[in-house]
Structures are given as C-alpha cells and as structure tokens.
Design brief:
The complex is a heterotrimer.
Chain A lengths: L8 H12 L9 H6 L7 H8 L4 H7 L10 H30 L9 E2 L9 H17 L4 E5 L3 E5 L2 E5 L3 E5 L2 E7 L11 H26 L20 E7 L6 E7 L1 H13 L3 H6 L21 H9 L9 H4 L3 H10 L8 H7 L5 H8 L10 H21 L5
Chain B lengths: L2 H13 L3 E2 L13 E7 L7 E7 L6 E4 L6 H20 L5 E9 L6 E9 L5 E3 L2 H14 L18 H15 L8 E3 H8 E2 L10 H6 L9 H10 L18 H24 L5 H38 L7 H20 L11 H25 L1 H9 L3 E10 L2 E2 L6 E2 L2 E6 L10 E4 L7 E8 L4 E6 L20 E5 L40
Parallel strand pairs in B: 2-7, 7-8
Antiparallel strand pairs in B: 1-9, 2-3, 3-4, 5-6, 10-13, 10-17, 11-12, 13-16, 14-15, 14-17, 15-16
Helix pairs in contact in B: 2-4, 3-4, 5-9, 8-9, 11-12
Chain C lengths: L10 H17 L8 E5 L6 H14 L4 E5 L2 H14 L5 E4 L8 H4 L4 E4 L10 E5 H4 L10 E4 L7 H7 L5 E6 L26 H8 L6 E2 L2 E2 L7 H8 L6 E2 L7 E4 L7 H12 L1 E6 L9 H16 L2 E5 L2 E4 L5 E5 L2 H13 L13 E4 H4 L4 E7 L10 H4 L1 H7 L3 E10 L2 H6 L18 H12 L3 E3 L2
Parallel strand pairs in C: 1-7, 1-8, 2-5, 2-6, 3-4, 3-5, 6-7, 9-10, 12-18, 12-19, 15-16, 15-17, 17-18
Antiparallel strand pairs in C: 11-13, 13-14
Helix pairs in contact in C: 1-2, 6-7, 8-16, 9-10, 10-11, 14-16
Classes of the chains: A alpha/beta, B alpha+beta, C alpha/beta.
C-alpha cells in the first residue's frame, strides 16, 4: 500500500506547499500519523495536516491557542527513564526483552548494535537502517538491536521519516520496541495511553512491512489478517517498555497491534483523497501566516479565519484534547448553533435536526406544527414528548 | 446520553445557564464534609505534589512536597497528609448504634441472632473531579504496603506509621467510590453533572471551574463565554487565572512558576548544607523563604479550586434530599464500619489485585447497587422517572375504570381486578408484561392485559398487593380518577446469587488463590 | 484439534470426524486429560445436535448430567429437543418461581419441571439456566456438566456454578455477542478471571492444556453465506457450508411487481443476499421510512408465496420461518407495529408469527429468510455498540436461504469517518475481527446486491 499519487503528485505537492506558504513543512511523524485516526471525518484537519501546516501557530493567530504542552518534569522523567534503559550497554532494556523474546543470557550470543549514523540526514539514516535490517535479517542466529532506526513511509506522495525507539531483529524477523514513561502498575496501564502507544507502534510496523517488502522486491500484503513472512518482516506484536509500578525499573508488555495496523492502513489510504479537498478550495486560499522579519505572524485573523473556514470541519468535543484547532472550531460550532457542540452522542438522538434552534423549536412546537416529512416528524415528536415530560416533572408549562 | 438530558443541554445552550436534571438531591451530603484538593507531580504516576484539605472553608490547610523526586520529602508529606486526614476519619468510629440481625452458623446452618455495631455517621470526602479520585487511589496503592519502624522487618526505608494507614483508608474510600450511589468519596464535577445540565459536552464538564461557570456566570456573560474564560484566561505572566482543578498542573505553570521555585528551594537547601557555621542562620532563613515561596505558589494554584468545591456544595445543599438517600447512606456507613473493624482486627492491607471471588462479589455488588440507584432515583424524582417513561419502561396516567374480576381456579377466589389507565406515555407494554405500581401501600404487581396506543389506554390486571381475602383490602387499589405510575421494571433489586468462599475457588478459575506472600513492596524503588 | 479440512472431503465426513473427536474427549477422556472440553461452533454448525448426542452418550455411560444454558428460552429449546431425540431419557427442567417453562418444553412425557432441585435429583439430565443453578445448594450428585452458549456466559456465573460438577463440556459460538455489564470493571481488565469476561476466556486462561475443538461445517448457512460469514467474522477459524451452491433454492409463486422491494426479494432469491438501500439521511433510531421498508419486504415475502427447497425437502416460507433483526428494542417494537398494520402476524401466542427481535435475542435462532435493519442505518455516528462485531454476525447468520438487509446509504462514509482511538488494556487478548473490518467486509459484499429504494 504505497500512497504515492502517481502523475498528480507533483502539482498536488506544489499546491499543498502553496497553501502552507512561507512556513517550513511540519513533517508527519508517527505520532501525527497515528493522530489521523482521531477524527478522520474532519476535512479541515486532513487538509492542514497533509499540507504540513503548523496548526498550533494558526490557532494562536486565530486567537484561540491550543492548551497543549508538556511539563518539563514529565519530559525530564521520560528522558531519564530512556537513558537509564540504555546505560551499561542496554542492560536494563535487555532484561525485560530477554524475558519476552527469549533473548539469550549475556554469556551467550552477543547482541549486535550497529551504528545507524544518527547524526546524518534522515535520508542517509533511512538508507543505513535498510542495510542494517537486511544484514540482521540475513542470519537468523544473530541478535541485533537497532537503536533509533530511521524508517521511511510514503504518505500522500511525500516521504515521512519515522524513528522508533528501538527494533530488535532475530530469526530473520523484527520486533518494534516502544519505550514509554507511563507506568505498568500491577500488570495494567492507562488504556488510553496504551492505545495511543499501540497506534504509534503500528505506524512503525507498517513502515517495516513496507521496508521488508521493498527489500524482497515484492508488493506489501494488504489483507489485514495475513502477515507477510519475509526476511526482516516485523511481528504484529510489539513490546511496550514502561516503568514498573512506582519504580524506575523497566517492565515489558506485549501488545498485539493488528487492529491498529488495519486502522493505520485505512487512514493512510484515505490521504490520497486530499487532491479532491484541494480542488474544492476557492482560488487563492492560503494558510500562510505572513511572518514579519522577526518571525511574528502578520496575517489578519479574519482573513486567516476565512481561509480556515473554507474547509469544512467535523467538530466534536474530543477535538479539544486532540487537535490544536479545537477551540477555534468549537467557537465556530457555537456560532452556527450546531448541536455537535454537545458531543457526538447527541446527534444520534436528533436525526436530521442539526441546530440547537431547530431542536428547541421542534421540542416546543404544537402537535400540529409538524412538517410533512415523516422522519423529521418522528424526531420532533420525540423531542416534543421529552419536552412535555420534562415540563411536567419540573412543574412548568410545556410551551 | 438520553434525549431528556440532551434536551436539558439544548435548553442550557439557549438560556446560557445550567438547567436542572433533578428535582431533589440524589446523593448524601455530610454536615461536615472533608474537602480534599490534591495535586500530582507531572510525569510520574501517583507522585503527590500538594494537597489542600479541611472541613472549614475559611481555613484550608496545605501540605506540599518541596521536591517531588525526593523520597524522604514525599514520606514527610504523606505523614502530614495522614496526620491531618486520619483524625477526621477516626472521629466517626466511636459513636455507634446497635443493629440486630441474624447470622448463619457455618457448620449447622442455623440462624442465630446477633447484635452488630453500625457507626452512627461516616466521613465524607469531596474532591474536585474524577481525576482526583484516581490520584488518591494511586497514593493508596503506593502507600498501603509501606513498612514502618513498628514492623518486625522495617526494611531499608521505614515510613512513618500514618503512611500505610492513610494508604489503606484511601484504598477503601476510592474502591467504595466505584459503587454506584455511594457517597463516602464524591467528585464535585460528577455531583454537579448529575443534578444540572450545562450547554456544553460532558467532556468539558470535567473542568470544575468551567462547569461552575454555567451556574454563576459573571454579569453580562453567557455560560459558554464564562466557561471558555474559565478554561483559558491567562494573566500577564501567561498563567491561568482559573487553574484547572488538577490533579495535574498546567504545563505552563510547571515550566514558568513551579520549576523555578523548586530550583530555588533546592539551591537554598544545598547552600544551607554547604554553609559555614557562621552563615548557617542566614542560609536557614533563605531555605525558609524559598519554602514559603513554594508554599505560596501552590496555594495560589489551589485556592480557586478550593473555593469552587465549596461553592458546588452550596448549590447542592439548596436541593432537598431525595427520599431514599438516607437508605443508601446507611450502606456507606456499613462500608465504613466494616473497614474500621478490619483495621481493628489487624487484618493485612487490601491486596494488590482482587482474587476471583472478591472480584465477582464486587461486580455483583456494583450491579445490584446500580439497579437500586436507578430505581430509587426514579421513585424519588419525577424527572428521573420521566427518563423511564420516555424510554417506554414506565407510564403515568389516570385510572379511568376499575373492573372487579376474580381468579376462581383455586380453592378460594382471588381478586384479579382490571385497571384501565389513560396515559399519554408510550410504554413497551406488550400483553403479558409484568408491571409494578409505584407508591402502592404494599408492593403491587400487575400484568398488562391490553394496550391501545391510539386511544392511550393500558389495561393492567392487578395480581398482588390486595390482601388475602376475596375482595381487595380497602385502599389497596387506586380509585377512578386517581393518578398512578406503573413501571415495567421491578422496584426492588434482586439478591445476588451466592458465590463460593475464596478458598473454594473452583478449577475453572485457577483454584484457591495461593498463599502468595503479601508481596512486601519495600523493594519497590522510589527514585 | 479438529480434523484438517480439505476442500475435497465431503462436509459430512469432516463434521463427523470433528464430532467423534469431541465425544471421545468428553465421554471417554484419557487419563490426565483436562477437566474441560471446549467446542467453538460457528453459526448453525450443529451445536445443539452435538449437545443432545453428548448428553445421550454420557447418560448411556452411566453418568447423571446437569446442563447449564444462559436464558430460559435456550433451556426450553434444549429440553424440547433433548426430549424429542432422547425419549428414553428422563429430563428435569429446573426453573425459578417466577418463570414458567414454555409449553414446548413440557409437552413431552419424559420431562418433569420443578422449582426445587430436590424433586429432580433422580433424573438422567437436569437442565436450567446459569442464574438458577447458582442458587442450587444441594450436595451435587453430578460429575458431568454441559455448558451451552458458553461464550455468552459471564466468568462470574461460571465461578458460582463450577462447584456443582467435576468435568464439563463447554459449547458456544465465539463470534456472537459478548456478555456485558453496565458498571465499571476496568480494575479487573487483564486478569485471567475478570468477572465480566466470557466464561470460556477465563476457563482457557486457567487451563492452558485445553485445546478448543471446532465444528468446521455450518449446516444452517447456505453456500452463498458461509464464505462471507467465515471470512468476515471468523478470519482465523474458517468454516464451510454443509450444502453446495444450488442445493438450497427459493422460488416465488408470484411474480415481481416491478417495485424495488420485489427487486430486492428477487435479488435475495437469486443470490442469497440483498441490500435494499434508502437514500442517505441522518435519522433517529426508529427511522419510519426504514421501518416501513422492512415491513414492506416482509409483507411481500409472504404475498409472493416463497417456497424453500433444500436437502430437507420443500416447504413454504411461512411467517414462522421469517425473522426481522434489529439492533435496538424500540426498533423491533416499531417494526412489529408496522407489520401488524400490514396484517402480518407478529404475536406468537396467536399462531405462527414472524419473529421480530434484537440481535441479543436472536442468538442461537434459525430461519429460512431474515430481514435485517442494519445497525448503522441512518446513524450520524458509529458507536462501539453499533459497530460490535457480534451484533452484525448474529444478524447476518440466522438464515438458511437468504438475508435481506435494509439500510440507508452512507454507511461506507460513516465507517470511513469513524474515529479509531480505542483504548487498549494490557493482557486482554484483542478480539478479532475488529468491528470496523467486519462491517466493512459485509458492506463490500452487499454492494454487489444493492437495490436502491428512492
């Protein structure tokens, strides 16, 4: 499943770059790719992500910045944990891997840790990783740890570079190792965080599947239930390495990412539809912030808002915690009186009624005020019934 | 979300104010609740940073961990937190009432009367949000196994005695908080959300200040505007004006305020340790100042939430208490009494994981209490009953006819009268469905004999609750013109089936839990 | 494991070999063999027949037997079947005080019903629900148990009844709906004995020596359905149909009237599947137009006098051989009302009637033709409930001949836009297939059998 847009990729890449304007392209990392699944129905997000627009900067300029950030304490803790794992020739990291993957004791076969040229450019590193993976997979008896390899995945015609924490190769196959600083407490961990880690790791598995297929010179398998068995093919179970309980000691947990892998494939293949979104934009649309000499944006907020508004959004309150533009889109949803501002679940109750005003009008209409439309009548009748029950219980008049 | 609560949210969008979701208060509120507002240190699970607590809104007490990574300081903090909280909890332990009951003898199966103690009242902790409950649970988990100097083997890092005791109480309270309708430990956001709808989503309702903004928006602002201001307004230093109620702090606060204050305190401590005797007094003073500054910084972050929780209590107190709230609070009192007794009996701390039987028992209890809660809320509150009516699980209406009929199949004739009820509701009243009459003198069951949706009449054959004679007891049946409510669900929860004792756990579930050592986690590292 | 399945072996022989291995393991276990035998059975693979055979053989070997099923109607069905196939068996039907057994169960001379287990101890077989068995206190005389629909049973229910027997045969369909609870159970997620998980999951976790058997042939699903259901819902445990293409046939006595409803019926008669598609629109659950379309399909199915020809002979597709499946109870109620307005019999008490029920209640049932109101029809959002694999699996696998799905257009887009941010619990085996993939596979198949209704 290679997402290049044959033939059209040049003009599309060109058009996306124009949309972005002067700002450097925000490259899609695994986290960003995994986040595509958060709200795939949102065209605004799809387009801005595909164009590599810095949504955080746009949100600031629109006057509703995203409240995201990471505490320096959390960052420090994460770095300390990962550094500790790699001390003493990866001693702490290898202990949990040994248990899970049957890695031999230190006395046995040595673990190879090839140099992956971490200071080089992404393209060079990716090439070096390919070589190292091929070498490591060629001899099934070898144990090889790829420390921060660089993987390449083509997304909507442009290459994305992905950097897993580690990949372990043995028996001609490899396993993605994902290091996280949230704890595994008495064998369980925050399911939302594990889910996010699994989606992220699935992106690496997908990139490794493509790498292995490319090395073997065959197309990658697209059936979600069938794993390809090529030299260097990744296991669809990844290892999550986390602090154990309240300590800094690592523990590893196997996570089956087949489901997330299928999701990721789906989301990436959708990105080929970006061309249609771009084509639907009004002439001259741009998300350029027009920075001045000091880098401060000068694009008038109304103009920027109009540009952003030219792509429809699918706002839901979950966006507040997953998308930089969440607060902006919420304000828009409120302005347009959309029922979506109350959450995804609400719409299921209201059928084709889309605005707060229409819903309240239906709830407080008389029984004869209905439309000729049976379905709209059904939703209105239920709202009217609910309004009558509510008024009765609160001792108010229904109308 | 049901259509009724959706409608309330829609109305709140329009009015710009919170709209009622209940006509009575469905949770017990103590006369002397302990408000607890904890803060967690970022990046590490269950690492405490500070806690503000107290029973007097004018006199919050604040405890902090000056350096969250320092184990000794964390223990100090937990010991102070424990010393502050435990006397409150224990103050409910002594005043008891005596309840007569029976106990089945395990050997003979005979029931013998026993008198048991039940604490007359129980403590109540109010925290800002569900995140705070989880944080307290983590603190409970991380401290209840701590060894103290009093243990036979105190281990390398003995903790003050209050620490494991605090852990066991927090574990009990947070576990009890999982039981539907329980009130020993309540998050304010959940309390407010149960009783009022805002014009925003339930995700946004997790932010206590934003939630309260819908109740008391500043003049000239709608609830939505006030809530957005509460979520995002920052001062000239980039700090939130209404910091979120935790337990996590705002990253910008960590970066720009907390980290520098901690660094200053660390530096002052280091300087004091290195100080020559002549400078010692001055260095101590600098440490004290740095500590005070840190204290002040955390106090500033906590005070708005502290005030919010009390304001929430004011709002809730204005609602009359639901009729069954006291009955459910008695369950909480039993829960509290039980834990008191286990502590007194010297039982070991709660295990890390429930065994199979305990887990099944807890699940059964939660399911039973969920049913009880739903039924009792519906009985106490017409708005809660309206949910069931809308769902077709209940109907209300006026009795338009009572037709005396009898079952003469047995030796003596029994009354089986028909009630014809005129209703605007549309119950799922298939013929033969069992229905239950709300507010009958004794529990009264009926069977749907007919439903005419067009005419709006349900015919119910009453089969019980009419006494033992051929004619129904006077007053046991509603009269023509009387308003009645019937439910399609039972009005008393069913008992849960018995489960084996843990030592009789069957082979399908791994057999009895092994005598696994209470894994003394003094080996758990803290740094 | 079950015998290897190859395409050239006759399905009957493959199935017989599997059944023989299961009976051997259950009735004559080797010394040291695990105390449980687990049988995974895809839809219509002869689970009930297996239970009856195992019961008879166990009784024949001198055992007294208890049977645990999950719902009263399952127990009644089982008692009915057991009594009919085993007239020599004495059968006890244990029931709760407030639930009288169905007349079909009690019509046999060899069946005794009682609320008290003491009245039934002398019978060869005693059958009841898990809920009722939990209250049985007696000194258990049973060594053997059969647990039917074991994947629907919750782990805590098994915990409460397992003390009553020493060995057990667990039979069920892993592809149907999982047990559920409305209260929080996160704290037990990942534990082998999580009380809210399926009984079989717990049993297998604690008894790793148990290797589940599989019934490899569906006798219910026609050749037009088995490959799709197998691939979409049982990707790692494939099965096949017992009958080949063309062995099952539907024929309509009355010609199509040119309407889309009749065109959909013809498509289903021809190919075993039809998708009657209404224009895209977001609707409330009880979408009146979709409900009306379902009712119209059923009305026309009856009006057109369908005959079902199969290996069992030829029979008219009467009301009792037709079912309507929905996701929600209010949808079922709305369909029942619409059918009644078209004079279609829906009250089983008044004679043969079309069954209209939710997926939960259709589990284990079988009909000639089913009409399904697609769980995602008209929805503005897909929730975990509506995407649940088991729900669609139940709805799409109740038929012997044909299945007609009624839906609004737009489900493909709805799936496409569905956020996939599921939480992941450590230690909990991921259930395959994913609801999204399964829905997608079924929808892709139905696209070839689409009849638009405008």
């Amino acid at each position: 499943m290679n997402v290049s847009l044959l033939g059209q990729s040049e003009p599309l890449a060109q058009r996306l770059s124009e949309l972005r304007g002067r700002a450097p392209q925000r490259s899609l990392d695994a986290r960003a790719l995994a986040a595509l699944a958060a709200n795939p129905g949102c065209r605004r997000r799809s387009l801005l992500d595909a164009a590599g627009v810095d949504k955080g900067a746009v949100a600031r300029q629109l006057g509703r910045p995203a409240p995201f950030g990471q505490s320096p304490f959390a960052l420090a803790r994460g770095n300390v944990f990962e550094a500790r794992l790699k001390d003493d020739g990866y001693a702490a990291l290898l202990e949990p891997l040994r248990r899970h993957l049957g890695l031999p004791e230190e006395s046995g076969t040595a673990l190879a840790v090839p140099d992956l040229l971490r200071r080089s450019s992404p393209a060079v590193r990716a090439e070096r990783t390919r070589e190292a993976l091929a070498e490591a997979a060629a001899d099934p008896s070898l144990w090889t740890l790829l420390d921060h390899p660089m993987l390449r995945l083509t997304v909507a015609g442009s290459p994305a570079h992905l950097e897993p924490d580690a990949v372990l190769v043995h028996g001609g196959r490899c396993t993605v190792v994902e290091i996280k600083s949230f704890p595994v407490l008495d064998g369980s961990a925050d399911p939302a965080k594990v889910g996010a880690a699994a989606r992220q790791a699935a992106v690496y598995v997908l990139a490794l599947q493509e790498t292995a297929a490319a090395l073997a010179g065959v197309p990658a398998e697209s059936d979600p239930y069938r794993a390809q068995e090529l030299p260097g093919s990744p296991s669809t179970t990844v290892l999550l390495v986390c602090p154990k309980d309240f300590s800094n000691r690592p523990t590893a947990a196997a996570v089956d990412v087949r489901r997330e892998l299928a999701t990721t494939r789906r989301q990436l293949s959708r990105m080929t539809g970006i061309g249609q979104l771009v084509a639907a934009l009004p002439e001259g649309t741009s998300f350029d912030l027009v920075p001045d000499e000091g880098g401060a944006p000068t694009r008038p907020a109304e103009e920027l808002a109009a540009a952003v508004g030219s792509v429809p959004a699918a706002y839901s309150p979950d966006c507040l915690s997953t998308c930089e533009l969440g607060f902006h889109c919420r304000a828009q949803a409120r302005c347009s009186d959309a029922v979506d501002q109350l959450g995804r679940g609400v719409r299921g109750e209201l059928g084709s009624i889309r605005t707060v005003g229409a819903a309240l009008a239906a709830a407080h209409a008389g029984p004869g005020d209905g439309t000729a439309d049976a379905e709209a009548d059904e939703a209105s009748a239920r709202l009217r019934y609910a309004a009558a029950l509510r008024a009765e219980a609160l001792g108010r008049a229904a109308r | 979300m049901s259509l009724l609560s959706t409608l309330a949210r829609l109305q709140a969008v329009r009015s710009g104010r919170a709209e009622p979701l209940a006509t009575v208060r469905h949770r017990h509120l103590s006369e002397r609740p302990m408000v607890v507002v904890p803060l967690a240190a970022a990046g590490e699970a269950g690492a405490p940073l500070a806690v503000m607590l107290g029973t007097d809104r004018e006199a919050p007490r604040l405890h902090i961990v000056p350096q969250p990574l320092n184990r000794d300081q964390r223990f100090d903090f937990l010991a102070r937190f424990g010393a502050d909280l435990l006397p409150y909890l224990e103050s409910f332990a002594d005043e008891v009432e005596h309840v007569e009951g029976t106990e089945r003898d395990a050997g003979t199966g005979e029931r013998t009367p026993v008198v048991r103690e039940l604490c007359a009242d129980a403590p109540q902790l109010i925290v800002p949000n569900t995140g705070s409950v989880q944080h307290l649970a983590l603190i409970g988990r991380s401290t209840r196994f701590r060894r103290t100097a009093e243990d036979a083997d105190p281990g390398p890092y003995p903790a003050p005695t209050q620490v494991p005791l605090l852990g066991r109480w927090l574990t009990h309270l947070t576990d009890r908080a999982q039981v539907p309708g329980s009130s020993l430990l309540l998050p304010m956001t959940a309390l407010l959300s149960r009783h009022w709808a805002t014009g925003q989503s339930h995700l946004e309702d997790q932010h206590l200040a934003a939630l309260l903004a819908w109740h008391v928006p500043p003049a000239g602002l709608t609830g939505a505007e006030a809530a957005e201001r509460a979520e995002s307004e920052r001062d000239a230093h980039g700090q939130l004006v209404r910091p979120s109620a935790g337990p996590a702090t705002d990253p910008k606060f960590d970066e720009l305020v907390l980290a520098p204050a901690i660094a200053r305190h660390d530096a002052a401590l280091a300087a004091a340790r290195a100080a020559a005797p002549a400078d010692a007094a001055r260095a101590e003073l600098l440490v004290k100042r740095a500590a005070e500054q840190l204290h002040g910084v955390l106090e500033q972050v906590l005070l708005p939430t502290w005030a919010d929780v009390w304001q929430g209590l004011d709002l809730l107190r204005a609602l009359p208490e639901g009729g069954h709230v006291a009955e459910r609070w008695e369950g909480d009192r039993w829960s509290f009494t039980g834990h008191r007794d286990r502590l007194a009996a010297g039982e070991p701390p709660q295990p890390k994981q429930d065994d199979a039987v305990t887990a099944a028992r807890k699940l059964a209890q939660r399911e039973r209490e969920q049913v009880r809660l739903e039924v009792q809320e519906a009985l106490d509150d017409p708005l809660a009953m309206a949910e069931h009516r809308l769902a077709g699980e209940a109907f209300a209406g006026e009795v338009v006819a009572v037709v005396p009929e009898y079952d003469t199949s047995g030796r003596s004739a029994k009354p089986r009268p028909l009630l014809v009820v005129h209703t605007a509701d549309r119950p799922h009243a298939d013929a033969g469905r069992e229905v239950h009459r709300v507010g009958a003198a004794t529990p009264q069951r009926g069977v749907v004999a007919g439903f005419d949706p067009d005419g709006g009449t349900v015919t119910v054959r009453v089969v019980s609750g009419m006494g033992r004679r051929k004619e129904p007891e006077p007053g046991s049946l509603p009269e023509v013109g009387e308003r009645v409510v019937f439910t399609l669900f039972e009005l008393t929860p069913r008992q849960s089936a018995p489960l084996p004792d843990p030592e009789d756990t069957p082979w399908t579930h791994g057999g009895p839990p092994g005598a696994a050592p209470m894994s003394a986690s003094s080996t758990e590292e803290w740094e | 494991m079950t015998a290897g399945m190859t395409a050239d072996q006759a399905p009957g022989a493959v199935a017989d070999a599997a059944v023989a291995a299961i009976l051997e393991a259950s009735v004559r276990p080797a010394p040291g063999a695990p105390r449980g035998v687990v049988v995974d059975s895809p839809p219509g693979a002869g689970k009930s027949t297996l239970v009856v055979r195992a019961a008879r053989e166990l009784v024949a070997s001198g055992e007294r037997l208890m049977i645990v099923a999950q719902t009263n109607s399952q127990v009644d069905d089982l008692v009915d079947r057991l009594a009919a196939k085993g007239p020599d068996l004495s059968i006890g039907r244990l029931h709760a005080g407030d639930s009288r057994p169905a007349p079909e169960a009690l019509r046999h001379g060899n069946v005794t019903a009682s609320e008290k287990v003491a009245d039934l101890l002398e019978h060869d077989v005693v059958v009841s629900t898990a809920a009722k068995w939990q209250w049985v206190r007696t000194e258990a005389p049973w060594r053997h148990a059969i647990v039917d629909e074991a994947y629907q049973m919750r782990s805590d229910a098994l915990l409460a009844v397992a003390r009553l027997f020493e060995r057990a045969l667990f039979v069920g369909d892993p592809g149907q709906l999982d047990p559920f609870t409305v209260v929080g159970t996160d704290q037990w997620a990942g534990l082998s004995y999580d009380p809210s998980s399926s009984a079989v999951v717990t049993l297998l976790a604690h008894n790793p020596a148990i290797r589940p058997h599989r019934l490899p042939v569906s006798w219910r699903l026609p050749a037009s359905a088995a490959p799709l259901i197998s691939a979409a819902f049982y990707p790692y445990t494939p099965f096949r149909s017992g009958t080949g293409p063309g062995e099952r046939r539907l024929a309509a006595a009355v010609r199509a009237d040119g309407s889309p409803v009749d065109a959909a019926i013809d498509e289903a008669v021809e190919s075993g599947w039809a998708l009657l598609e209404l224009p895209a629109r977001h609707t409330v659950r009880t979408d009146p137009q979709a409900v009306a379309a379902v009712a119209a399909v059923v009305r026309r199915l009856l009006d057109r006098g369908l005959t079902a020809h199969s290996e069992q002979g030829s029979a008219p597709v009467a009301p009792g051989r037709i079912a309507v499946g929905t996701a929600h109870r209010d949808q079922a109620a709305a369909v029942r009302q619409a059918l009644a307005a078209l004079d279609v019999p829906v009250d089983p008490a008044a004679g043969p009637a079309v069954t209209v029920d939710t997926a939960n209640r259709l589990q284990g049932r079988e009909y000639d033709v089913t009409v399904v109101l697609h769980p995602l029809s008209g929805r503005p959002d897909a929730t975990a409930f509506h995407l649940e694999t088991g729900r669609l699996c139940v709805l799409a696998s109740r038929h012997r001949h044909a299945c007609i799905v009624v839906a609004r257009a737009g489900i493909a887009e709805l799936l496409d836009e569905h956020p996939s941010t599921e939480p992941v619990q450590l230690g909990v085996a991921v259930k395959f297939p994913d609801g999204w993939e399964a829905n997608h596979a079924v929808l892709a198949h139905l696209a070839a059998h689409r009849v638009p209704l405008s």
